[in-house]
Amino acid sequence: MQNTRYKQIITAFTLCTLFLHATQQQEQQKPKPLYLFSHGLANNKTQVQAYIDEKILPPTAITFNYPHGRDTKTVFKKIPVTNRVSLAQQYDIDALAKQYDFWQRHLPQLNKDCIIGFGISNGASTWINFVAQKQPKNLAALILESPFDHTKSITDGMQQAIKQHLGLSIKNENIESFMKGIFRKYDPNGLQTIDLVAQLSKDLPILLICSKADTRVPPQSTINLYNKLRLTGHDNVHLLMLDYAQHDKLISNPKTKSLFTQCVHAFYKYYELPHNAQLAQDGEHIFSQTQNH
Fold it and tell me: Which pLDDT band, with edges at 50, 70 and 90, does 137 fall under?
């Protein structure tokens, strides 16, 4: 009787060990997602490194230069090639579409059925416009920092900044004319993100992130996108609104960078994407508030 019981225990233990071993092997063999990073206007592909350093993106994240991005690591990377700037309109959309297609075809070791898009500001709005227009396959999630809903939001922000810092009152239409003059690929009457955002798949997980202190892309611009998505039945959209950081400083500001990182990993975990377990656990309370707006 005791021998029979002992054999049952040994058999059960052996089966559990084999199962765990097989599961671990399966996890190790499972291809990793393709993370595609879309940089902001006043930056270039090197911007991705800060997000890798903060463990928001893995070292395997793919990036590229938009036509307006200067191929340099010097301070000049902050100065876009103005005659190639389209402010997330067709010129940028086509550039992202080209990269999406290229990396999907040329990186067989990554999981091409699980592409995660990450974008900052102009690069974030370009993601929205690209996905709405091209309806790409295999997109698993979007994480978008400070996307703008309309270029008017940018001109409004510039108008307020000029008045605040220089004491000058400049008409919005004058700023618009100036932008058209230097941003040669930009069309004031062209497509706008707020008009396309509802065309995103209703099942697509989306995390929008913005800061109340951002004066370059006012937070209301990102909030407008979130509200439009919620009103059109996009139940998988989330909004993390931070309090302190200026534009494109959300992960360098010591008051916001941990919240940013933790919330992203909680988002990954919630939608069953690869994540850091500890960071995801730490971010659960933050992520739980991302639809209470």
Answer: confident
Q: Which two tokens stand for residue 35?
A: 């993370």
Q: 3-state DSSP call for residue 273?
A: coil
**Residue 178 identity:** F
Give the torsion sign (CA, 242, 246, 196, 128): negative
Q: pTM score, two decimals?
A: 0.87
What do you get for the CA distance between the two ends of the chain, in Å? 63
DSSP state of 138: S
What's the order of all strands across the beta sheet hosting 206-211?
A: 33-38, 111-120, 139-145, 206-211, 237-242
63/99 Cα distance (integer angstroms) = 9
Q: What is the pLDDT of residue 26?
A: 42
* Residue-range domain boundaries for the chain: 33-150+192-287
What's the per-residue H, E or C state across 235-266?
A: CCEEEEEECCCCCCCCCCCCCCHHHHHHHHHH
The CATH class for the domain spanning 33-150+192-287 reads alpha beta
Strand pairing report for 139-145 and 206-211: parallel
CA nearest to 74, candidates 46, 39, 53: 46
Mean pLDDT across the stretch 165-170? Answer: 80
> Mean pLDDT over residues 74-84, rounded?
87
